[in-house]
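If you are new to this repository, start here. Below is one unmodified record pulled from the training split, so you can see the exact layout before writing a loader.
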Amino acid sequence: MTVGGFAITQLYDDFFVLQEPGVRCFLLIDTRRALLIDTGFGRGDIAAAVRAVTPLPVTVVHTHADPDHIGGTAAFQRVLLHRGDLPRFQSRVSTRSLTVTFLSDGDTLTAGKYRFQVLHLPGHTPGSIALLERQKRFLISGDTLQTEPVYLFGPGREPGRYLFSLQRLYHLAGSFDTVLPAHGSCPVSAGVLGDLIGCTQRYLSRELPPHQLPAGSPIGDKCRLYRWGSAALLGEVGGPPR
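And here is the target side for that same chain:
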C-alpha cells in the first residue's frame, strides 16, 4: 500500500520498508514503541505512513543527517543520532521541540526481536552510522554501503575516513550476509563491499578516470563519477585532495 507518498512493504516480521522516491526508511515494531530509521526528504507525510502500520509512539534513528534522511523529522519528538552529525542536523531541523539523544559506537538498540549494534562509520558524513543485527545477519547501512554512487564530494565528506570505515566493515563481514541500504537495490549481498573498497582505494590514488554526469544533472558541475567494478563514487571534480 501507499500512504503519504510512501510505498509500504513488509520485509521481515515486525519490520517494514517505507519507500519514498529516491530514498527508503525502515520501521521496526516493538511492544511499546516503534523504531523509525531515517525520515526521508520530507516531501511526503511519513507520520501518516507510520500510523498506517502502528499506533505506537516513535523513536527516530538517523543513519546520518543529509537532507534526504532527515526531512520528515519534525513530525516526531524523540531522535537518536551520532554527535558527529549534529551540526549538519541542526542546520536543517529545529531541535527546540525534539528530545535528541546521541549514539556512540558500540551502543545497542533493541526493537522487538531485533537487537542492533551501532557502528560509527565516518566518511560519507562525520556522524554516519550503520546498524548491525548479528543474530539475523543483516546490516542497515544508510549511505555507507549501497549499489548507487556514494557521495564523497562537498563539505564533510572524507574519502580517507570512508575507506577506513569500509575496511572496518570488511573485518565484520562474517557477521552479516545481507545489506539494507537507503538507496538503490534492497536488499543486496554483502559482496558489494569488496568493489566499494577497490573503487575508493583507486579514487584516492587517482587511478580512476572522472566521468561527467549527464547534461542537466543538478549536481553535474559539483562532482564527477568514478567507477570500478560494480561500485561508483561521486567525487570531487579535480579528484581527491592530495
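Two things worth knowing about this chain: Helices lie at 46-53, 67-70, 86-90, 159-171, 192-204. The first strand starts at residue 2 and ends at 3.
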